[in-house]
Amino acid sequence: xxxxLKLRESLRKLERILGMLDKTQASCCGxxxxxxxxxxxxxxxxxxxxxxxxxxxxxxxxxxxxxxQYLVDQNWVIRSENAEDRRIQEVSLTSSGLTQxxxxxxxxxxxxxxxxxxxxxxxxxxxxxxxxxxVSAIEKIKMDNYFPCL
Length: 150
Prior knowledge:
Elements: H1 3-28, H2 33-44, E1 48-49, H3 50-57, H4 61-73, E2 77-81, E3 89-93, H5 95-117, H6 121-143
Antiparallel strand pairs: 1-3, 2-3
């Protein structure tokens, strides 16, 4: 098997593992995966707009609006108009949303810290650099609108 196929198979397996982890993590806070990811992205950024969140999550605006409405209904997020342009909707966490966000972040940080301790110390730095390089390469191809069938 050539190296590109080995990479593909390793990434497919990693996607499944991380997908299951995300689903498990999301169910812990009573949301689906998209809602959980939205909550985390809103928590990581001040002044995030609905369109900005849609771009980050790679979802259309209407889907993102429905996700935000669920988070608003749970009293985790508030939606407000931009002070300079009322057509722009911004989203931010409420105090209970901040608690949810911090719980998710702490749990995920703990998980990845445990993963990191299971990697040979001399390989940790290069692994992080290689993953960053891989993400960059995939983003370059994505920008060319090349989305292969998995």
